Amino acid sequence: MTATAPHGLAEPHGVTEEQAQTHSHAHGEEVPPASARPKLAVWKFASCDGCQLSLLNCEDELLSIAEAVHIAYFPEATRAVVEGPYALSLVEGSITTPDDVRRIHEIRAQSGVLVTIGACATAGGIQALRNWADVDEYRSVVYAHPEYLRTLDTSTPIASHVDVDYELRGCPVDKKQLIEVLAAFLNGRKPRIPTYSVCVECKLKGNVCVPVATGQPCLGPVTQAGCGALCPSYGRGCYGCFGPQDSANTESLTRQLVELGMPADDIVRVYRTFNAGAPAFAAASDAVAADARDRAAQERGPE
Amino acid sequence: MGDIRILQPSGLDSLIGVLHERGYRVVGPTLRGDAIVTGEIRAASDLPQGVGDLQDAKTYRLHERGDQAYFGFAAPAQSSKPVFFPAEEVVWRGRRDHDNDGHFTVERDAVDEPPVALLGVRSCDLRAVQIHDQVLAGRSHIDAHYVGRRDGTFVVAVACSDPAASCFCASMGTGPRPAENDPQTGAPSYDLLLTEVLADGDHRFILEVGTDRGADVVAALAASGAPVTRGTDADQADAIAVTDAAAALQTRVVDTAHVHDVLRASAESPRWEDVASRCLACTNCTLVCPTCFCTTVQDVSDLTGDSAERHRVWDSCFSESFSYIHGGPTRESTKARYRQWITHKLSSWEDQFGMLGCVGCGRCITWCPAGIDITEEAAALGRMSGLATPAATT
Amino acid sequence: MSTAAAETRIAGADDPMVPRRYAITRVRQDTRDTFTLLLDPVDGDPLTFKAGQFTMLHAFGVGEVPISISGDPRNPAPLEHTIRNVGAVTRALVNAHPGTEIGVRGPFGTSWDAADAAGHDVVFVTGGIGLAPLRPAILDVLAERDRYGKVLLLYGSRTPDDILYGDEMRRWADLNDVNVQMTVDNAPYGYQGKVGFVTELITRAGFDPRRAWAFVCGPEVMMRSAASALAGRGLPAHRIRLSMERSMKCGIGLCGHCQLRDLFICVDGPVLDYARLEPLMNVREL
């Protein structure tokens, strides 16, 4: 996958034959020594740590995971640091500082398979709202000594900087998808990470369509599956935590949201949450904002 | 068979009871949250009595009817499709012995479930079951799990009295009164057919017997002391009046005489761009369609990879991954995917199976969050192709 | 239908959805990224098949892919598949060491039925790994070489290094009176052979279009232009056969993935005649 194609799947690259051999041998009755297991590293950039915690929340599977891989770097869980290269890197968080840019290239160079986890790493996160703001102004208002601060004007996904093998969407990521990506990695197969809409998950579960049956706004038709249709299963519209699906038609959905009575400001806001920086959602919010501006200008009339 | 009975509404529980006694799992319309869905029926109280629905493009709302009707609504949110063809099932389970050259064993997952009695299935959905029989069990290769679940089904059909604005079964020739026999196989369509009559404060079911099995159930009903009496030709006329009125209420139409050729001629129609600007590619139409049968397989393994399962899961021609081969999807654009779907339903299905793949239940219209209407798209294509009759109306 | 009838239809070892176990006897590297797998059944008789048919190959715990059989229909053991290493499943298959068990479903689909061309000239047009699904048909023809007129094999490859079955093609030319013509898309400096697309060979190839049959296999764009060039030389569409590729999950016409208008490519194809395919191939994204 190239940095300009942030969605969809690609074959992992950079796994050497030795690494492939290593994980195909990581089975059997007894736990192989750490040196025989593929090294796993978990990295953090601008984020809340929630996605890393999802890994620690895999309580039932955590022991089997620890037996199958050698957790070499995972500051949220252990202080031990084992040097690279790493067979598998999980990367949380977005790129917001010049130092982040340097560090992610180093990580990529040391990683066989690199998987980004969560909305920050895959779309820039909620902090990508800065992409629409004047960062210099924030800096001067918030910090007593802004001159000590080194930050970028934007919050960008990992795939804007280095090649990414797989993306796990969500705020936070889904535990089952996380285990799936590990199982797939260990068995040399492609993880089952659907890129279709949340609607598919609703229908597979037997959920009744929330916007059609209740008139509530729902981002499900433009949002990628993966959460198990969490909100619609409780009768709420989808909030879009998993970012745009592979064929998102936000223009059509925006028209539906307008018809359901949602004011333009709110529509801009629903597209600009955890995945504000995802290109399809960013463009959709910009279109609604521009349309609202034009309308307001027309209402004011010629000066 | 012309065997007419009258069943009082108080006798519905006895009917359900007789079906349970005979070992059937009874499945029918029931209320869940904001919709009528297809689910388990333990007693008549599980039926959505007194509830009606309003359905139109991208709208579904329930309301109190103000009467005691048990079946006073149109198509439930989902048809009986998942009863015989669940959204996900295990095809086989395998184990691998890692130290022994990857020696593995695979066991076919078998269906071991009691036979189903469909209670209150309407003619559109019943026709859809017959279509699935042809697609999944009527060709050289069959879906073993479908056959296993479908085998021995008892059908208590309901003649539809309250079509929704999205319905068009009359135009498709699939309802509102079910055909006595499957037009392809000639087999009886139902064991029993109920028509609910509410006129003049005289709430009753006119019960028509379609098979010997159905007659046995009626005999058992009578023997149990349930309120079943003999009916007359006048009662059957009342039943037919109910469905005639229901047919007359329908306004949506497909020009079935021309639609096959219209779609065949429309591969390059500019209409596809237009519909793609509205289509969300969300897959809802296909996943509520009672005849859509596309599935994918998913190979699931544990962390060690020594235990694996193959799952069969509903899929949709509206998802990009559906047509993926090495190098990319063959149907990359939404317009190509919509064209595939409607062309399959209303044209190539006939070439494949000798019937259209649409039963006029209207679910794809109701449950499309963008309100795309298959009848409107077919009519527009007809106009643009110049092949349709100028005024295709009821 | 009755329960008993249903059980007879679904029971037994021949269930097309359940993979049969085969052991890899040898993995032969053909080119940089292409390998041939030789397989023997773990138990039971070897698979018999017709030229052009495919199987679903299953790497345990990884997944399944449709692959055309590339072996000799008259000598079906061991079972041969030529595979390009392009994804997770194919990687697992070509990296497996001899003795490893894999799953096989099939054979599925239609045949080249090359014998229909008996008494006529035969033109095989192919590119890259497209030669693999065509090889069984070529072997069928060569087994009864004297029943056919001229036999031509027009083969295109990306580079000289990607040429598949190079030694075998030379043997066919030397021993079986096959007119083998090769071309490459890109060649290193100093390459002696032809450079260009395989369709360019069609215009000058020496066969009698009034009495020839053509069998074409390759990427869809290549097949489209090859079939059109053959038709342009006067070959009627019903004497041009192509092998189509579509997404396939079941192999038995149930999953719906491989549909091309009214065709289920897995059962109505993969081999189909150009008369049937031409109107479908000319519509984009059908």
Structure write-up:
The complex is a heterotrimer of chains A (303), B (394) and C (286). By secondary structure, chain A is α/β, with parallel strands linked by helices. Chain A has two domains: 17-186, NADH:ubiquinone oxidoreductase-like, 20kDa subunit (Rossmann fold, 3-Layer(aba) Sandwich); 198-300, no CATH class. Chain A contains 13 helices and five strands. Chain A has helices at 17-24, 50-56, 59-68, 98-110, 119-123, 135-142, 175-186, 198-205, 210-214, 230-233, 250-259, 264-271, 279-300; strands at 39-44, 70-73, 86-92, 111-117, 166-168. Chain A has a five-stranded parallel β-sheet with strand order 2-1-3-4-5. In chain A, helix 4 links the parallel strand 3 (86-92) and strand 4 (111-117). In chain A, helix 12 (264-271) packs antiparallel against helix 13. Chain A is flat and about 75 Å long. The model of chain A is unreliable at 1-29 (pLDDT under 50). The mean pLDDT of chain B is 95. Chain B has helices at residues 12-21, 81-84, 123-137, 144-150, 169-172, 212-223, 233-249, 259-264, 271-278, 284-288, 334-353, 363-366, 374-385, and strands at 3-7, 25-32, 35-40, 51-56, 59-64, 88-97, 103-108, 116-122, 154-158, 192-197, 204-209, 228-230, 295-301, 307-314, 324-325, 328-329. In chain B, helix 9 crosses helix 11 (334-353). Chain B folds into two domains: 3-249, Aspartate Aminotransferase, domain 2 (3-Layer(aba) Sandwich); 259-385, no CATH class. Chain B is α+β, with helices and mostly antiparallel strands and 394 residues long. Chain B has an eight-stranded mixed β-sheet with strand order 3-2-8-9-10-11-1-12, with helices on both faces. Chain B has a four-stranded antiparallel β-sheet with strand order 7-6-14-13, with no helix packed on it. Chain B has a two-stranded antiparallel sheet with strand order 4-5. Chain C is of the alpha/beta class and 286 residues long. Chain C has eight helices and 15 strands. In chain C, helix 5 (198-204) packs parallel to helix 6 (220-232). Classes of the chains: A alpha/beta (303), B alpha+beta (394), C alpha/beta (286). Chains in contact: A-B, A-C, B-C. The interface between B and C is large, with 56 and 46 residues.
